[in-house]
């Protein structure tokens, strides 16, 4: 058995056949599958079949499927389900998923569904809906376990057994002050089951202030805390340290993946798109790509202006134009290297904003050395082509070689500096440093690069070529 | 209290003061901190103080700190610790971390430490060390809980209470066939504590084949399975479905972050570096950046060759050179957009390798539309500059505008196609699609872009300018 044949997924050859079965039979198949597999089947059925199949599922199973963020078209499905069934599914789901779904719902379905929810779901939804995207509040759910500090271990365990079904996780138990309700300790379930039944619950947890976050904590910061403290869940507390919800690790995994995709798109120079490639329609695709492409194009037009400025020199020494693409791309490449290094360093908090000058002091010699390396390669190339007779750069070929090499040093250094400082500037201005895209850095460096090149040429070639 | 003042971390104003305390006092401070905070302090102490402080820590605390991947210089610390203490810490640690540490150790320390390990640690280490990096085997640990299918729920719970301390996680319990030891079910701890004490353990878990992976499963695929099935741990099984280890979610979070950084570096056109920016020495920095920069530079030299080929045309119509940077960068930008879209689509398995032609069929019209958009902008610019008298493109300015616009359509289409197909080609050849860096795509498109531009110019301008 090779590792490749080892796929743990039920890659279902019957997926297509299932679609032809009556809804009740489809539901029966779905109920026997893992939720992720069942969702893959549902996502590939047409909407009527999906609705019919869900209507035939046991209630608990339907709730389980709706609880997965991977289920698509939830708005359509809910719109077509019988109203009472839609309501009872939403009431039984976890509050964070209901919130996600309502965020995508549009009126009139949204209002129609909201009014039939039970009061607790309504309350949770109202609370969760007002947190901005990308914050802990938008990831959190209100179904957690908290007990007063006066309880014993066995009473806590008994309580968990009673409420387990309705809680997102029971692996972290939040101990609060019996009167002020302020968070005091976190006890893990593994600690709880190994503790003395009569021990006060407050004595079971480690004697340290629990890691807690505000509902407005950025979700990238939430992910960082999960990694730092190896958490399975983190309590979200208000300003008085009352627990108002929890964020669980499965939501953090999903959020990290979304962030990864967003950052990759930003760095590639396009707007974030939160759906699979194949589902992006042509108009949306053009909007997400055309906007940035046009802005970059307008910026890059400055290169034409810069070159018009050096028109006289260009006419005199057409040989200089041969190296324009080479020089510009080297600046862009060194800039995109520096940018990708610094975007990550800032994201991982390896570097603080105030350390920008330390970075500049490192990028300067790095840029000079890298520029010198490329300059040397270029001089060798020009000398080789000239002496081997591949191309004639004219009588001043040595001066040309020196000019190009000097320009490369200047441009690669500028590229490294500009590329490394841009993420700092963006963060300082309150933008995401990951917005420093490779194309943006390249555009920035291209225009300056041309000016550097022609200035160096004027210095080295005045009186000979120019 | 603003969200910013809400940092849950013990940002320790005393960190610097601590360094001046005697080792025993440092150890006392460390023992009272969260592991992540204690590690931050240790990472900032010099090596002698670090070793002395660890030697003064209670044994269990020292093990806890070593169990965190964030602790740096473990090789130095172990080399300087008393041999028996180093050995006893390693014996008590989780097997996956011991493996990570041994992977970084060098002889003679490596051998010196290996011989004093206890037999179980040695056996686990031998098993884990031979799995390649980036596989499930390199992430997994051998400390998991498995019980025979014949046990009852209460006996299982009793067993967990006994062995809890030595297990990485107890939240997933693996039920194996009592004779063949083949994995049959997974039971979660929350199911276990809510089940009837006398129930056979096999009846407690959901009636489905557990998600399991091979030790050679790629770690990106492991992360995908965690997200798909909302796992806290996944069993690693051999070809006969015997459980040989588990991968836990905290390791997956760390691995995802490393992958994110690696992918960002690759896309930025430099080699992966697995240490914080500030700790990269100049020689290493030059190596990781200079290599790719040189390769790209050599590739980009083809642009000079391409331009030499069109030397005659360049001499005749210097005005054409004005648009070279603009045209080249547009190709590169559209290419990097397409590449970043497709790298993510392949990573998330939104698209399969065999669907490359569907992508090509989408990128073609997208590229043509985007190219037409940029072409239109460029024609407006040339017309405006000409009629407003900002610049004189000569009597044939309309033909020039049409030439540039047509070239833009060709180049942006080519850029979108090349950028979207490159990740497929890399994956097909067995490379990581994420290696398709923005600079690499730009270089590819630059050379072709020049040829397209001059060819279009020859077609449109023969008989007038050329």
From TrEMBL, chains A, B:
Molecular functions (GO terms): magnesium ion transmembrane transporter activity; metal ion binding
Keywords recorded for this protein, A-Z: CBS domain, Cell membrane, Magnesium, Membrane, Metal-binding, Transmembrane, Transmembrane helix, Transport
Membrane disposition: Multi-pass membrane protein
Entry keyword annotation includes Lipid metabolism: no
Residues covered by the CBS domain: 206-262
SUPFAM superfamilies cross-referenced by the UniProt entry: CBS-domain pair, MgtE membrane domain-like, MgtE N-terminal domain-like
Subcellular location: Cell membrane; Membrane
Residues that span the membrane, as ranges: 368-391, 397-426, 438-461
Alphabetized InterPro entries for the sequence: CBS_dom (IPR000644), CBS_dom_sf (IPR046342), Mg_transptr_MgtE_intracell_dom (IPR006668), MgtE_N_sf (IPR038076), MgtE_transporter (IPR006669), SLC41_membr_dom (IPR006667), SLC41_membr_dom_sf (IPR036739)
Gene3D superfamilies in alphabetical order: CBS-domain, MgtE N-terminal domain-like, SLC41 divalent cation transporters, integral membrane domain
Short name of one Pfam family: CBS
Presence of the UniProt keyword Ligase in the record: no
Family: Belongs to the SLC41A transporter family.
Function: Acts as a magnesium transporter.
PANTHER family per the UniProt record, alphabetical: MAGNESIUM TRANSPORTER MGTE
Name by which UniProt lists this protein: Magnesium transporter MgtE
Originating organism: Paramesorhizobium deserti
